[in-house]
Every structure is written in structure tokens, then in C-alpha cells.
Amino acid sequence: MFLTMEHLNKTYPGGKVAVEDFNLEIEKGEFICFIGTSGSGKTTTMRMINRMLSQTSGTIKLNGEDIGKMDPVKLRRKIGYVIQNIGLMPHMTIRDNITLVPKLLKWPQEKMNQRAKEMIKLVELPEDYLDRYPSELSGGQQQRIGVVRALAANQDLVLMDEPFGALDPITREALQDLVKDLQERLGKTFVFVTHDMDEALKLSTRIVVMDGGKIMQVDTPDGILRHPANEFVENLIGKDRLIQARPSITTVGQVMLKNPISTTPGKSLTDALRLMHEKRVDSLLVTDEANILKGMIGIEDVDYNFNSATSVDDIMNRDIFYVQSNSLIRDTVERILKRGFKNIPVVDDEHRLVGIVTRATLVDIVYDALWGDEEEDEESDNIHHGTDKTPVSGASQTDAKGGDQG
Amino acid sequence: MANMNMLQQLIYYYQQNGAYVLSQFSRHFLISIYGVLFAAVIGIPIGIFIAHHSKLSATVIAIANVIQTVPSLAMLSIIMIGLGLGVNTVIVTVFLYALLPIIKNTYTGMLNVDPSVLDSGKGMGMTRWQVLRIVELPLSLSVIMAGLRNALVLEIGITAIGTFVGAGGLGDIIIRGTNATDGGAIILAGALPTALMAIISDLVLGWIEKKADPTQKKA
Ligand SMILES: Nc1ncnc2c1ncn2[C@@H]1O[C@H](COP(=O)(O)OP(=O)(O)OP(=O)(O)O)[C@@H](O)[C@H]1O
Ligand SMILES: [Mg+2]
User: Where does it mainly reside (chain B) (predicted)?
Assistant: First the structure.
């Protein structure tokens, strides 16, 4: 285990209990978000990790080693830290700010210059900003420097305390993408405090929900959305997100129609037309003998080419839009709606045709996402045999629904 | 001399006693500078210390305040009882008066450093000494400089009364003037360089102070 926190307690002088029996194991490469109301102990917990605060009781181990037995100065140089208020050194250039920890670690000058250039490029600021002073940068630009300053010495573990507060949504998103990328690509471990549930859901591998110094729930973003542990977590997530969460965890395979009407390239147009007439559809999917999706023909194609062409192969449209059955509705529904397709074939991993999403299916999904909640009470009686009437049963309902169709 | 106007008298005095005035001028200046330097050597560390131990700050500043309220002539006499006549008595007096502005400004300068900057410095792995050297001192330098400037200007005035304990300096010339009949020009001959010294010191240190101000930093 990379970072272990066991039975952490923190009581401030004066008796304020800020953290109570905090237990968490973090693996290397995880992105952990602490979220909770103001004063719930997020900063306090985070600051115990780099010994900016000492816990009243409990142990923290980094790579199996008790940090209480390490030299705090050396420990802090190994851990990137972005404090709640950025805290750039106003009397130092951006270059010196970025390379502060490398300098403490006595890197050679050449390497530090190199590093400063890499870092400023990472946050997409021009290189000549390196010679500026913090007061000559905008608030958002300063915040970006604060973020890369915590990464400059190649720290494996990075602590960030609300690093993206007070940023415009575009810059915020760019920085979120940046840290997420660093975690995914370079395997850095992040402990990240935020007030913003969307941010937590977007970035985390696991979310730690805190209230009054205690952990309310630790789970993946999907886990938290599907099964909020208690009312506090539900409220923190918010009703809107719980509703939105439903399409977000449903896969295409769960909502598609299972018996798409298909034909094979070798069939004649007469056969194809007869099939359309019989099944009352205006288009046919084309697959080979192994059921691999090859293309699609529409009634227009048949009409225009009935005299000139003979087989389905001659007229079928090979360049078609399709989706994977295990992809999430969340990721696909908008794409489908935007492109205005009528019918979208669904394939499995081996490109075999397994289903079709029609406009009618999409209507169901959107309807569910927006209003599904209101019918919940009646439905949940059937599904849960009247035992569960909590407002959150929405999440499990989706499961049940997927099950019905699948 | 009587038929010359004040300005002519003054010029005449400088022509006749140029070397004497110059030597008193430098003596005066050195006394003030020594006093301020000693006060800085003692006062800045005290200021730093009380900034880190805020419980002591009220007491220390109160003591320095009391020293400041003693009239300078009285202070000079009291110290003379211990150290006798001579330049050392003046330097000690100057030292004591310089303590308050220096301690106070160092203390204020240190307290004014943005706590989040200190926090990030510590959080990135600076030792206490490094936080002081790399963050706190550079950021409070301009306020400390302002303290030194106040002190020096104040001391140049106080040094002028050092003549009463036989320390020399421009005060000597002024006293000569007061003892002479029609000594207005001689008084001026001593007072003018004293004022000039104070003004120039003020300007020069003010310039350095501005240079040291981190909020004025521009690429
Ligand atoms: N130095 C301190 N002395 C006494 N109490 C403190 C101190 N620092 C924090 N607290 C208290 O401990 C509790 C937890 O504080 P903490 O800063 O960890 O909250 P937080 O979750 O980070 O809040 P926020 O989201 O507002 O930053 C709060 O009730 C706070 O008032
Ligand atoms: Mg906080």
C-alpha cells in the first residue's frame, strides 16, 4: 500500500475535534478527492500527510514507513503541495517559484532551467513568463504556476487543497485535464480537496466524503452515485446529479433492441425489399455469415437502384456509424442525437451485430433521465416489493430496468 | 566680520574652518551610524524573535517605548554617570533610541508577510532557517529598512547634543555659535550640515527601501 492512514484523530488545542478515526488506504496512482462541507476536516487531514500538522493519535505510513519517524523537511520535499491560497513567493520570479523545491534539493542550475521550461509549457503559458513576478500574472495564471510548482521535483505524491477555486470554467477544465493526465500517464498519486462535486466525480478514482471530521463514505464516483451511503451523501451529490447519473451508468447494451432486422450482402434486392415489407422497416443492416456488421441499406437505395443493381452488396452503404454495446449511454447519447441518425447498429467487441438503437429508444432514455424520477414511487413498489421507498432507489431501479431488458 | 551679511559670514566661516567642519561632519555621521548599526545588530534579531514568539512582543515593545520617552538630554546624563564623558556615551544613547524603531519595524515587517506564503514555503520543505532567509527577511526587508531610516534621521539630531558630554560632532560648532556674540552664522554653519545630513540620509535610505520592496518587483 502506498499511503495508509490508520485511526487518525486530530484535536486542536482548545478542544476542537477536527478529525475523528480516519482510516484510508491509498494505492499508487490513485486520484483521491476529499469532499465535504466547510469545516469537515479536509484540510486538517491533508496537512497531517505532509506533517504540516501532527495528529493527536493514529499513524500514517508512506510506502510502509511511518512518516512520524521521518525528517519532516525531507518528507515535505518528496510530496508536492498546493495550499488553499496558492502562496507564490511574491519576491521571486516565476522561474524561481517553479524550481523552489528542486533548488532546496540542490539540483544543478541547468537542470532547473530545463525543468522550469517544461513546467511552464505544461500549463500553456509563454516561456518569457518565467522572468516575470507573480504580481504580473492574472489570478488564474498564478494558480497554474502554483500547480506546476508542486510537480517540478517529480513528486510521486501530490496534495492539492482546492487548487482550482476562483478559476473560470475553461481554465479550470484545462487544469483538471492536466492533473488527470499526470495521474493516468505518469502514475502520480493525488490527494485532492474540493468543494465541487462535479470536479470530484470527474477526477477521482475514489471519493472520500467527509462530514464533521468523520468519513461518511469512500467509493468510486459510480459507486457513490449508485449507492450513496446516507442522506448526507445524497444531499451532497444533489438530486440533479442522481437523476443524471442514471443514463450515465447505463450501457448501450442495456437499452438497445435485441433483434435487429438484418440481411447478407449476397441477397438480391428483391429479397431485401420483401424483408423490409414483411418486418415493416425502412432499412436493413447487412452482416456476413459470421454476423459481422458490414453495412446498411435504406429503402431509398433500393428504390433508386432496383433496375441497375442486383445484390445487396452492390448498393449497401459501407461507411456507417455504429456504437459498442458496452459503451456508456452518457458518452454516446449526445453524439447520436447531434448527428441525427435514425437507427444506430450496436456491435460487440468482435464487431458482431448484437442490437440496434432507434429514435424511439432514445426518446425512452431522455424521458427517463428527465422525468423517470416521478414515476419512481409506483414502480419501486413492484421492483423492491414495497420495502424500499427511499428517494435514492432511483439508482437501483436503473439496474433493475437494465435487467428487464437484458 | 560685523559688516558682512549672514551669508557672507557663513561662507567666510567655511573658508576659514573648512577642514574643521568636515572633520566634525564625518565624526557626527559616524557616531550616528555606529549607534544605528549596533541597534540594528541587536534590534533586528530581537524583532525577529518576538515576531516568532508573539507572547513576548508586547513586553519588549513596551520596554523600547519607555526608553524612547526618556528625554534625550536626561538619557545622555544618566549614561554619562556610567560611562563618563566622551564619545561612547553618545553612541550608547544613540543605540538605545534607535532600538525602538528598528525592533518595531522588524516585528511589523515579519508579521506582515502573507501567512500563506510562509505556509507554502514550509510545506515545500524549507527548514525554519530557510523560511527566515528565503522568505521572511526578503519580504520584510523594506519595512526593516524604513525602521533603519527613521532611526538614522532621529539619531543625527540626537548626536548633535553629544557635544555636552564632549563627544564632538557638528553640535560643537553650534555650541560655539551660541557662546559667541553675534554667532548666528556659526550656529548656521553647524546646523545646516546637520540638516543636510539628515535629509540626504533620508533620501538615500528611502531609495534603498523602495528598491527592497518586493511588491515593487517588476521584470
Ligand atoms: N488551528 C486551528 N485551531 C482550532 N481549530 C481549527 C484550526 N484549524 C481548523 N480548525 C477547525 O477544525 C475544523 C476542520 O477544519 P479544516 O480546515 O480541516 O476544514 P476544511 O474541511 O478544510 O474546510 P474548508 O472546506 O472550509 O477549507 C473546523 O471546524 C475548523 O474550525
Ligand atoms: Mg480547507
Answer: membrane
Provide CB contacts within 8 A for B2, sequence distance 6+: B182
Q: Where do the DSSP E strands lie in chain B?
A: none
Mutate to test the pocket of ligand 1, among A17, A22, A33, A40 (most ligand atoms within 8 A of CB): A40
Provide the residue type at A35 as one letter: I
* Neighbouring residues of B217: CB distance < 8 A, sequence distance ≥ 6: A90, A91, A133, A135
Ligand 1 mutation target, pool A8, A38, A44, A191, most atoms within 8 A of CB: A44
Q: Give the strand order in the sheet containing A262-263.
A: A262-263, A283-287, A293-298
pTM, two decimal places? 0.71
Query: Which pLDDT tens digit goes with each residue over A13-72?
Result: 999 999 999 999 999 999 999 999 999 999 999 999 999 999 999 999 999 999 999 999
- Domains along the sequence of chain A with CATH: 3-237 (3.40.50.300), 253-397 (3.10.580.10)
Q: For testing the chain B interface, which of A89, A128, A145 should be mutated: the one with the most B CBs within 10 Å?
A: A89
Q: Of all protein residues, whose CA lies closest to atom 24 belonging to ligand 1?
A: A38
- Domains located in chain B, CATH noted: 22-213 (1.10.3720.10)
Average pLDDT (B62-79) is 88
B138 touches chain A (CB under 8 A): yes
pLDDT digit string, tens, across residues A137-174: 988 889 889 999 999 999 999 999 999 887 788 888 88
Amino acid at the residue A123 = V
> Considering only residues 3 to 62 of chain B, which have any Cβ-Cβ distance to chain A shorter than 8 Å?
none
8 Å CB contact of B219 and A93: yes
What is the C-alpha to C-alpha distance for residues A9 and A17, in angstroms, rounded to an integer? 8
Distance CA B79, CA B77 (A): 5
Ligand 1 atom nearest residue A43's Cα: 22
